[in-house]
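User: My advisor, Dr. K., asked me to get a structural model of this assembly before our group meeting. I'm new to this, so sorry if the format is off. These are the inputs:
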Amino acid sequence: MRHFSYTRAETVSEAVAALASDPQAQILAGGTNLVDLMKYDVAKPGSIIDINKLPLKQIDELPNGGLRIGALVSNTTVAYDPRVQERYPLLSSAILAGASPQLRNAATTGGNLLQRTRCYYFYDPSTPCNKREPGSGCSAIGGINRIHAILGASEDCIATHPSDMCVALAALSAVVEVEGPQGKRDIPFADFHRLPGDRPESDNTLAQGEMVVAVRLEGNHFAGHHTYLKLRDRLSYAFALVSVAAAMEVSDGKIVELRVALGGVAHKPWRDMLAETEFAGQPAEEVTFRHIAQRLLAGAKGQGQNDFKIPLAEKVIVRALKQAASGRPQVQSVKAIQ
Amino acid sequence: MFNSSKVVGLPLSRIDGPLKVTGTAGYAAEYSAPDMLHGYVVCSTVATGTITKIDTSAAEAFPGVVKIYTYENRPKAAWRDSKWKDEVALPGHPLRPLNNDRILFDGQPVALVVADSFEAARDAAALVQVTYEAGEPHTDLAREQGDSYVPPVPRMQAFMPPKPRGDSEAAFAQAPHQISAEYTIEGEHHNPMELFATTAIRHEDGSYLIHDKSQGSQNSHDYICNIFSLDPETVVVRNSYVGGAFGSGLRPKHQLFFAVMASLDLKRSVRVEMSRQEMFYLTWRPTSIQTVSLAADDKGHLQSVMHHALHATSRYEDYQENVANWSGLAYKCDNVTISYEIAKLDVPTPGDMRAPGAATGITALETAMDELAYEVGIDPLELRVINFIHRDQNTDKDLTSKALHACYREGAERFGWSERSHEPRSMREGNELIGWGVATGIWEAQMSPAEAKVRLSSDGKLTVSAAASDIGTGTYTILGQLAAEAFDLSLSDVTVKIGDSSLPKTTVEGGSWTAASSGTAVQVAAKMVIATLLKAAQKIDNSPLAKATEEQVEVAEGRLVLETNHQVGIALSDIMAAAGLDEIEEHAKIEPDKSIQKKYSAYTHSAVFVEVRVDEELGQVRVTRVVDAVAAGRILNPKTARSQILGGVVMGIGMALHEEGMVDHRTGRIMNHNLAEYHVPAHADIEEIDVIFVEEDDDKASPIGVKGLGEIGIVGVAAAVSNAIFHATGSRIRSFPITIDKVLGATALESETLQ
Ligand SMILES: Cc1cc2nc3c(=O)[nH]c(=O)nc-3n(C[C@H](O)[C@H](O)[C@H](O)COP(=O)(O)OP(=O)(O)OC[C@H]3O[C@@H](n4cnc5c(N)ncnc54)[C@H](O)[C@@H]3O)c2cc1C
Ligand code: SF4
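Assistant: The format is fine. Below is the predicted structure of the whole assembly, which you can bring to the meeting.
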């Protein structure tokens, strides 16, 4: 960890001003990811802007039946908020599938969106890594990559975004509210994270000086048919090898509306909106689910150690869609998969 | 023989428990001294090669930095190899930190930054620029197999394979049922909660009190005195409390060397604590590749056993463990060939990790036994029962005891084994296939030389002291119980002092021998105190005990009395007053009985039953039930004993499903060097674990009837899990840990062949 200056922001505009004035500045929220990265000498912020005093800790009702979750609301608070549990049980479930109670207590909504990849090489400054040090190379290609991407990877980076919460937010078409020197803007969730391309150093589309202030959810009809299904290397407290957030509206045994987002397989929560609309009207049954899975995984490419993720993902998608269709979502405290 | 006790054999809570849960038990890194400095180790980032340049200028300029040590300016230390050899050193050349520019493994210490705060030392460490001329690393055991060799200098004679007996090749060829398979186990890395740390407190007169995390304060003491030519009388090393060790602390670690080196050089107290990442560059359970071939007749009687074991070692030491010899003594078989080799890799020297050798070898043997059971077509438990033998065929010695039949019987009954259907894939619930597996566990029941003192003071209280260690195993408590028992006291009347090099000599805490060895020493010392009491009592005029012999007296309710008639006796306080004694202290020195060792082998045994549920489609494995039935002689404290077995089973589940150092063989670097990515079981991975201690009377393994429990709990668990996975899925996975990808790969093959 290197020396840095520390500022505690009292207002959002103060935080934004501080952030905009120093390209080396970084926001500190729960600190569960940033502080680790600083200790490993991966993150070397010149200044830290502590935003924990900002008034971003509420979950507010929206007129359309939606909710607005402040950037500093803890993962635990979101997961156990009765309104979230009732209207967005998928989100609650995804959060509870991640990390540990202690981490979820500290982790914030904004921090969860902005958490960095868990690529082994990214965390080890002695190895080349384009994300950490642009141009140095990607060690994961041809290396240890069992947790890496099978979709949307590039020649420069095959890392995944590790969040569970974000997979549910992607499926629910959340909107990210950001504020920067230019003022406020909304970013549709699908556009918030990006694929690595030739700029793996940037995980998302935030502009310099912008910060997340809230995440907005519209009203929806998915509370009856949804699930979050996560496969990992131990039964809890491990990042996803593959996870699926599935939600649908079903009528007369047919899919009315479909949402599927994948976690652990790409640099961002993976969704194919075109495919989702195409499957509307199809019978909500296994054959359809298999076609959906195949469609989502078209173009999937393994890196050697992670080849197994492709057939695994197909099966997890099918199982998740079955769970969603039958209205029996995975309960995260139950480890047998329904 | 041991039935009358009021303290021994009871499930008492550990006496150090309250200190631990209130945070008042001091661990090595928690001590400090005024003006203390902090050291932080810089580790190499290549696995082999030479250092071409170390630029410390930026680090030196960092505020708070006092001094940076590299091989270029390291203070002098012992020159001879022999001075660097600790009590349990291995054949080869012990690592000398910062000795020269050569790199022998990834993570080797290349510099020590000393600063006035831990943070400053750590931050400056990141600024030390080391340039290497890196060589090509060889870290993949599978690829280096060709260069394996039989260790020229055995670490212990007992680790070398027994001479082949019978003709295993011919018997194998002729037998109607044969199996032969290769088993691989990835390297596992010690990660007890407590990081290795040393606080070297320097007194004004140059003497030292050193708090060092280890499994032997005297081993650390002698090591450091030898290396730096210190007067042994001026150095005390303590390991009062140890936050887990499991074998990682048997040999002194580099932080001890560094703390003392810097302290001597700077004449200040120094603390060096390792990082979690550094823990991955130490003692580890080596990657292994084993081949086991078994053959049996139509009834399942073993006709041939062949076991070849190979594991990794470092460039500089020949680490050895007893991997394969178990296959020559576990079951009755007259045709046995065992071979054992190691291969040098660019890795740190492996070391002992809970049940070293057995955990590895028995995983292979017991998986192979399961394969044989299915080849012959008999129940896997039955196969083990019919091949039972109450003799060590490797050495042709009798056994002190072997209540393994009771383990099989009681374990099977508790588990409900008789309900098992033999066919794989025949039990199912929901999306999960259910499998039941069994394995036998074996570990040595060892004793080592030990000393202990017991002191009786005039208020009737006892103090027990020995340099023994309590690495979380309950040593404090059981030594207290044994002393209390001898004096008919309760545990709270006994003060136990251990974990201090100035106390009576004790071997490092390892091999599960501490209870048997230090326990015996305490019991002998207690008897010596009673003998002294008797002598004093007999000097009293008209002593009612005048004619009594040592064997005829005991202590009851604060009096020295005749065993046969408690009415006859004298109060201890009266005896001591009459003799004018404030206290009586005796010092016992015990050794294992050579005449018994000549005639007998001593082992602990277990039978492990495991239920798994496998979501075959998704590859998820859950261990839903474990019954571990253990025969370990006399159980001094069922509560601490059970904890040992529980911990062993959890580690065994980790070995089966999770633990694995992931090495990038292009660089020789271990990549998952943190606890987020190096997986050990989480709570969700552990369900019901049922521990049974079967009756086993054994007066030969140790004088107090104890066989030891620290290690047996892990042995056989990984095999029982893999056997259960086979029973569930019909797919045999011979590569550990059994991760999702392997389950998916194996079951995909299985369903192909079924179609
Ligand atoms: C051992 C371990 C296991 C874990 N397992 C899981 C898991 O299984 N699933 C899972 O989803 N997660 C897991 N996590 C990750 C955890 O969810 C994240 O660390 C957490 O969500 C980050 O939130 P935070 O508030 O602590 O972020 P911080 O660490 O404070 O910040 C993270 C990043 O976000 C930036 N940031 C924070 N807030 C804002 C904002 N409002 N606007 C702009 N930038 C911001 C920071 O500058 C920093 O770059 C695990 C973490 C650990 C350590
Ligand atoms: S995958 Fe991305 S994060 Fe990992 S080493 Fe390659 S560039 Fe770095």
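One thing worth pointing out at the meeting: Chain B has three domains: 17-23+447-591, 31-136+193-244+249-279, 146-188+284-446+598-754.

User: Perfect, thanks a lot.
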